[in-house]
Amino acid sequence: MKNNMKNIQRLFMALLLLAMCTACNKEEESSPQKTDDVKEEETSAPSEERNIYPLTGLRSDEKEGQRAFAVMINNHPAARPQSGLQQADIVYEVLSEGNITRFLAIYQSNQPAAIGPVRSAREYYVDLSTGYDAVFISHGWSPQAKETLENGKLDYLNGLFYDGTLFWRADFRKAPHNSYISAENIKEGAELNRIDLQKQPKPLPFADTKETPKGDSGLEAIVRYDQSDVWNSEYKYDKQTEKYLRYSNNEQTKDLETGEAIAVNNLFIAEMKHQTIDDYGRRAIDLTSGGKGILLQKGVSRQVEWRNIDGRILPYLNGKPIGFVPGKTWINIVPALENHVSLH
After folding, report:
1. Element spanning 237, H or E
2. Residue 212 vs residue 229, higher pLDDT
3. Residue 179 and residue 86: Cα distance in Å, rounded?
4. How confident is the model over 134-154, as pLDDT tens digits?
5. 177 with 76: CB under 8 angstroms?
6. What are the beta bridge partners of residue 103?
7. CA–CA separation, 284 and 279 (whole Å)
């Protein structure tokens, strides 16, 4: 009897030890990984969640992006110096009538307090905006641009309907060189017209900032729209900032309010077929067929081709896309490279 009791006690103690060991093993299996691993995950998470402005490739501290807006900006000598042009992420310079160029400035990362002088639209400027799904801003329009916009191709605000409200007139300039708008007024106009400003554009392709492009010297480029310097655009490379500074009519292009200079990380010059379509001298420009181009980055120029990818004019080399250097991009469109562009 005593032996049986001892055997039962031994069996009970063995079962108790077995249960305790099993519980310990389960606790170890369900416990978190090492503290070092958790710290590594915690420190790596913020870098993965960093926001990048989609049209500049630069870091953003904003949690949510917003929709881009594209503004027609006057480049007549009576409209210089302009306001807010240096804050645009992308700027197209294109001929309108005769030897006069206008700018299409696309904003997403900055919200200028003054933009202008704002000028009237042409159809190809509207088409250039579609690749960014931008809200289109102009003061006036050609018959072709009017038809395109009224058919719902893009959301838009026109100074013809908001002169003196969303758009204001500067008293130090004469019409039509004195119409201005602000980012806040664009937002107000969007709210009035139930235009959604939440959807930000898809990112542009960007290059590794550590890579130096290979090509010819590209320290200076002159884009000639006329024999006179009045309509020419000159870009000079600044080695310190690795940006191109813009000049026109032998004067550096600076902001009216702040004096801040135009500083460009990417200068892309694209050759496109131009055609005069009416007695007024308005043009049609072939934005879709592709063609020759010159890309200048970090003091280097490369002969490339341009392609229209989902409404965006992008550089290609040997059939492969070339990434932009993070920062601001200016795109000059010309009828022929050999007649309008010189590099130094």
Report:
1. strand 233-238
2. 229
3. 18
4. 999 999 999 999 999 999 989
5. yes
6. 73, 93
7. 13
Alpha-carbon separation of residue 132 from 55, 138, 149 (angstroms): 9, 16, 15
What is the residue extent of each domain of the chain? 59-343
Provide the Cα torsion 69, 267, 255, 107; round to 10°.
10
CA 311, 314, 320, 322 torsion: positive or negative?
negative
Please, what CATH class does the domain formed by 59-343 belong to?
alpha beta
The helix (H) or strand (E) run that includes residue 14 is: helix 2-30
83, two tokens: 């306001």
pLDDT tier at 50, thresholds 50, 70, 90: low
Two tokens, residue 305: 């081709």
Q: Is the separation of the CB atoms in 242 and 265 below 8 Å?
A: yes
Closest CA to 138 of 156, 150, 152: 156
pLDDT of 21 higher than 90: no
pLDDT in tens, 284-339: 999 999 999 999 999 999 999 999 999 999 999 999 999 999 999 999 999 999 99
Tell me the chain's radius of gyration from C-alpha atoms.
29
Q: Within a 10 A sphere around the Cβ of 194, how many other Cβ atoms?
A: 7
Average pLDDT taken over every residue of the chain = 88
Length reported for the chain: 344
Q: Report d(CA 297, CA 67) in Å as an integer.
A: 27
Closest among 203, 214, 204, 222 to 297, alpha carbons compared: 214
Is 174:291 a contact under the CB 8 Å cutoff?
no
Q: How many CA atoms lie within 13 A of 33 on its CB side?
A: 6
Tokens of 269: 């010059």
At 250-266, the pLDDT tens digits run 999 999 999 999 999 99
Report pLDDT digits (tens) over 207-216: 987 778 899 9
Q: Which residues pair with 206 in a beta bridge?
A: 324
